[in-house]
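Hello again, I could really use a second opinion on something today. I owe you a coffee for this, so here goes:
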Amino acid sequence: MDGLLAPGIKGLPNDARPREKLLARGPGALSDGELLALLLRTGISGKHVLQLAQELLDRFGGIGGLLHTGADALKQVKGLGPAKRAEVTAVLELARRALAQTLEERTIFESPQAVRDYLQLQLGGRPHEVFAVIFLDSQNRLIALEELFRGTLTQASVYPREIVLRALHHHAAAVVLAHNHPSGVAEPSRADIELTQILLKAMALVDVRVLDHFIVTRQRATSMAEQGLM
C-alpha cells in the first residue's frame, strides 16, 4: 500500500512542508521536488516523500521527463504503487486536456506556445520516432491530433496518401505536421526538409494548407516555418 510506514509531509517542520510553503509564498517558491512531493503526499517504506520525489526527477530527467513518462515505465520504480502512478499520469492528462481546450477555442496563431507545449506533452518523451498531424478547421482551431506513423521516419515510411485521407475525413482546412527526435536534437534534418516539401505538394492537391512542421524534443519544439524552411 502506498505510504505504509512511510514518512510523509506531516513529519516535516512547518517551514519545510511544501503545502504550507505554497500557501504562504505561492507555487513559484517551491522546487520541482517539493511540488512533486506535494502531489505524492507520502513516501514509501524507509524513504521520505521529498527523497522519493527527487529520485523520480533524477531517474526520468526532471519534471518534464517525468510527465512524459508512461504508466508502464513508472511500474519499474520499486515501491511506487498504483495510486501514486495514477496521480502522476492524471496530472499529465489534465495538462494535455487543458492545452487541447485552448487550441479548440482559439486559433493556433493566438496561442503558438500552447501548440509547442501540447506537442511536447504528446511527443517529447517518446523513446521512438512518432509522426503526428494536427488537423485544423477553417479558423485554424484544433479538430484532432493523430499519431499516424512510428519507427524510423523517412520519405518511404511516411505516406502522403494516408495524411490526405485523414485530412479529408476530418474535413480539415489546414494541418500542422510534427515529429519527435528522441536524440534530443531539435533541428530539422535534410530528410525532414525534403519530406516536408513532398507533403506540402500532396496536401495542396486537395486544397489543405500545411501551416508548419515542428521538430519536437523534451526541451524544445522547433518550427520549420519560423526557420523559413517551408
Observations:
- DSSP finds nine helices and five strands in the chain.
- Confidence is low (pLDDT under 50) at residues 1-7.
- The longest helix spans residues 82-105.
